Amino acid sequence: MPHLLIVDDDPEAIEWLSELARAEGFSVATADSLRNARIQMSRLQPDILLADLQLPDGKGIDLVGDLETRESTEVVMITGHATVESAVEALRLGATDYMVKPADVERLKAILRRVPRSGELRAEIGELREELRKLGRFGHILGSSTPMQKLYDQLGRVAPTSATCLLIGESGTGKELAAQTIHDLSRRKKSPFLPLNCGAVSPQLIESELFGHEKGSFTGADRQHKGYFERAHGGTLFLDEITEMPQELQVKLLRVLETGSFTRVGTTQPINADVRLIAATNRNPEGAVADGKLRGDLYHRLNVFPLSMPPLRDRSADIELLAQHFLEVLNKQESATKSFAQPTIAALYAHSWPGNVRELKNYVQRAFILADDVIGADLAPAAVASPDTAPLLTVRVGSTLDEVSRRLIEATLAECGSKRKAADMLGISLKTLYNRLAVYKAEGAPEEEEERETRHPAVERRRAA
User: Fold this and answer.
1) Angle, alpha carbons 433-237-148 (nearest 5°)
2) Which residues contact 225 (CB under 8 A, 6 or more apart)?
């Protein structure tokens, strides 16, 4: 039977919370102060700690430091004096959830029902560790290098909790796979996992995508639409490229995280949202805050448990394992028996892989198509895209990052002559490339920029041909 410790100096709150918890199958201990709570914790560590933020002898969050094994206890702070600052501070210090008095009964029941019985989640994580030792795989992620071992330790610790996570890493490092692994090792694994790339949705539509809309709420809204938060109820929502979300929507997202409710576009009726949020960015988040791309209060609310995804160059020991895996998948799909020549394997290690695992996967797919039985040295990464043969792109010091990004994309597209090949070379998805090009088209190209592009060496070579 899972054990709950309630810490509150309000006798009425203790009484109804205890009654609700026992009805959900919990054994219950209570305390009205930090001192009494520590006595209870020394007798039996709780599976879930429900504590008032303000107690007569201190703050309930101080109890986090007294837990014997932090990762095995769910910590929920509850208070009648909620502010954005207090919520962010509690989560930063170790709380995994935050509720406002009077606590919402259905939301509290959902939290209690997610507490693992008999340590089944910890047992499942142990089984994944054994799979990692044998196959080099942890959940949906492949790799057994030292940086990945450290990542798996963190994933295993945070997955069973309700903590909001922020995945930080370059494009192509597997952030969505990490988010999926967290979901599959959580109490929410039987509920939906929904990913949404904030950079791939029009700013005019993203609010409707997240929160849904009512029929007739705007032109073209010919029916009611349930958004991602509503469809992910009970499960996990993964928001990639969170820094691309419009600032005004970031305010609304922060409110959902604080209150656990949202409203569809076109109505004022609140809807409860029992959703765990995992966000991701390929930017430096603190730099994004400084640049005004990410609200500081939202960053701290998301950054409860940050996870850094190592780039492929920092986990080079996994390159052959990954390449062989991608090749085996293709061989199985196409009933083939293709293999890498040893010089090709050596070339894989020598390549820098700026596009990370996504670039490696795309390379294996191209080489598989071009090769007969053996992927030889002529199809090694250096032969596919040699830096010595590619034209150089010169930019002025002081150019904006948006301008540099635009020129690089357009020059690469001109060089490749294929959007798919350009996306592979840039290490981005084809969808992201199309979105960027659509933005450039909508903004219009300045005459100076158009002239500069017409003088690009790749364009000149095509004209000469």
Assistant:
1) 75
2) 208, 212, 213, 264
Q: Is the peptide bond before 56 cis (omega within 30 degrees of 0)?
A: no
> In the structure encoding, which two tokens stand for residue 314, read together?
């920092």
User: What is the number of H-type helices and E-type strands within the chain?
Assistant: 21, 18
DSSP 118-167: TTHHHHHHHHHHHHHHHHSEETTEE--SHHHHHHHHHHHHHTTS---EEE
**Which distant-in-sequence residues (6+ apart) come within 8 Å of 27 by Cβ?**
1, 2, 3, 4
- How many angstroms separate the Cα of 198 from the Cα of each of 210, 268, 406? 10, 24, 19
Among residues 38, 80, 76, 33, which one has the least CA distance to residue 58?
33
DSSP per-residue string spanning 186-247 = STTTTS-EEEEEGGGS-TTTHHHHHH-B-TTSSTT--S-B--HHHHTTTSEEEEESGGGS-H
Cβ neighbours of 226 (radius 10 Å): 14
Which range has the worst mean pLDDT, 216-220, 411-415, 460-464? 460-464
Instruction: Please tell me the distance from the alpha carbon of residue 194 to that of residue 239, in angstroms, as a whole number.
Output: 9
- Residues 40-64: pLDDT tens digits? 988 888 888 999 888 899 888 888 8
State both tokens at 100: 């406002």
* Res 323 pLDDT > 90: yes
